[in-house]
Specification:
heterodimer, A: mainly alpha, 1% strand, flat, B: 274 residues, mainly alpha, globular
Chain lengths: 297, 274
């Protein structure tokens, strides 16, 4: 009896200790992630200025589909996504394959140099790129000097080129980051597989698409999901390079939420509705990517 | 490897290196030049760094902004590491079914975009402002709190704890250490590299954080470095020498920490995706 009671007390004590280790983190995440998330859901059915909110049913959600700025923001975000993410992932894969060559020299130097952009803050590099891409900025100056163009490109004031400038900037910042992931997984692939393929007469392209890509599938999925989530949340770059202009041609959903809440007359209810649009997009794109990765088995 | 392939590899990698490094070099070189020279496209270092630095300190509150960023980043890093490592350890060492469910729910928070949290958080801190001024809008505390606990860091510590040799914990208990004693006296010292990696990730994220400080810190004396740089960058008649000097100074702490602890950082990122 005595021992049974002791064991029971001991087990209870262990349960209490176990939970006390995790309780602070759990409460903090509930308070700063899940509580605001529920708040945002409630607010997305409300309308009004500042803190004076009243319920108005699905009006905010109906407004979304007739809101030209929201539609522009979604379009821009999708363009960034379908152009930038695949380009960056292929580029990172290509560079990591080159760096994985055992006979290559100065590997450490190349790796560090290509990873370097990840050390900069998003704001700092955005400001640098804003000046590089200025009408009389360094990039135009160089392109003119080598006669690639005859007159300066209006990088930041032309709707098409402004998007390109943003895409170039993000690619510069994140390619090295993704490359490091691929490089570490490549190092786990046994080199004899490539040797065997070479003996069988497989070309470099065949080796890349038949061995490297399938072997790296889980990590490619991981990087494409994190890059997608990152792109859907794009804010710092657009805010600091183009401010969303010219004429909303580079505005992103995050920046629109910021404008709705803190720049225009505050409309927290509608801003919350727009923010749920990002949540839904993240869920949809993640499911698509899981499906695509799963089907290729 | 054929010679042609080798030459192509070196050319591609050299090109990638130039593109990656060039904006950095330009930023550093520009910080040593006068604004006029930067606009003319001068690519050689000049001798105006001290002058730019003095002008910078005179025109903006650089030192207070650096202090604010340091206060926020150091506090966030210390609290983050403590809370997340306790949780990661707790979820793994005192494993139970109900704890696994809670852990999986916490992981969902990684999918929530910050833009969706921004407005409700702003209102939350607005409400707090009315009762406890020290914790409300436009305080450094408000800038710290929402980013202190991330599911990613808990996940990171839990993954590392899986590799931790658990026999020593039992030995510690037999020697009469309390559960917290076991954690602080045995676990923390043996997991130094994990803590180092987590510290780099958290410090860099906090030092470079922009959106939440932009929303919650409104008065100029509470500005952080990214807010200051952003304001400088949006001026109509930019002095490039001054701006580039500010960017160099802002990038330095994060870059230094990164280079000193580069090995741990890469190891830390690897641990997170295994």
């Amino acid at each position: 009896m005595q021992t049974a009671k002791f064991i029971k007390n001991n087990r209870l004590k262990n349960v209490v200790i176990g939970w006390s280790f995790v309780i602070v983190a759990t409460l903090m995440i509930c308070l700063f992630y899940f509580y605001p998330m529920i708040q945002a859901l409630i607010m997305s059915f409300q309308s009004g200025t500042g803190t004076n909110l009243t319920f108005n049913g699905f009006d905010n959600y109906l407004r979304l589909f007739q809101d030209p700025t929201f539609i522009a923001a979604v379009k821009n975000t999708v363009v960034y996504l379908i152009v930038q993410v695949p380009v960056m992932i292929l580029l990172a894969l290509f560079l990591s394959v080159l760096l994985n060559n055992p006979k290559l020299r100065f590997k450490g130097f190349f790796r560090t140099a290509i990873f370097l952009p990840c050390v900069t803050s998003l704001v700092a590099y955005s400001v640098i790129f804003k000046y590089l891409f200025g009408a009389d900025g360094l990039i135009n100056m160089m392109l003119l000097k080598v006669n690639l163009i005859t007159e300066p490109i209006q990088w930041l004031t032309d709707p098409f080129w402004a998007k390109i400038a943003i895409i170039v900037a993000i690619t510069w910042r994140w390619t090295g980051y993704n490359m490091i992931f691929y490089l570490s997984s490549l190092q786990n692939i046994d080199h004899s597989i490539y040797e065997a393929a070479k003996m069988d007469g497989a070309s470099a392209f065949q080796q890349f698409f038949k061995i490297t890509i399938p072997m790296l599938k889980p990590i490619i999925l991981f990087t494409s999901i994190t890059s997608t989530i990152g792109t859907l949340q794009l804010f710092d770059e657009v805010m600091n390079i183009t401010q969303g202009g010219p004429g909303n041609s580079t505005i992103t959903i995050s920046q629109y939420i910021y404008n709705l809440s803190f720049k225009y007359t505050p409309d927290f209810g509608y801003a919350a509705t727009v923010s749920y649009a990002i949540v839904i997009m993240i869920v949809i794109f993640s499911i698509i990517q899981f499906k695509v990765a799963g089907d290729k088995k | 490897m054929s010679n042609l392939k080798r030459v192509v590899s070196y050319i591609v990698l050299t090109l990638a290196t130039i593109i990656s490094v060039f904006p950095f070099l330009w930023m550093i070189v520009s910080a040593t030049n006068k604004s006029v020279d930067v606009t003319k496209g001068k690519l050689l270092p000049g001798s105006h760094f001290v002058e730019n630095f003095n002008n910078l300190i005179e025109t903006v509150n650089l030192i207070p902004a650096l202090m604010n960023s340091a206060k926020i980043s150091i506090t966030t890093t210390i609290l983050s590491l403590l809370i997340a490592s306790l949780a990661g350890y707790g979820f793994e060492i005192y494993k139970s079914k109900s704890k696994d469910i809670v852990f999986n729910i916490l992981l969902i928070s990684m999918m929530i975009p910050f833009a969706a949290l921004m407005v409700p958080l702003f209102r939350l801190f607005g409400t707090i402002s009315q009762t406890v001024p020290f914790f409300g809008i436009d305080t450094l505390t408000a800038a710290v709190l929402p980013s202190v606990t991330t599911a990613f860091l808990i996940f990171f510590f839990r993954q590392s704890t899986k590799m931790f040799p658990k026999d020593i914990l039992e030995a510690g208990r037999i020697d009469g250490l309390s559960e917290l004693g076991v954690f602080f006296r045995i676990y923390v010292p043996t997991m130094k590299t994990t803590y180092a990696a987590a510290a780099i990730i958290t410090f860099m994220a906090s030092w470079n954080n922009y959106l939440w400080p932009l929303v919650v810190l409104q008065s100029p004396e509470n500005q952080t470095i990214p807010l200051l740089i952003s304001n400088l960058g949006s001026s109509y008649s930019p002095d490039f020498g001054i701006i580039m000097t500010a960017i160099v100074i802002a990038t330095l702490p994060a870059a230094l920490i990164f280079f000193i602890m580069q090995k741990h950082f890469v190891a830390g990122m690897m641990g997170s995706v295994k």
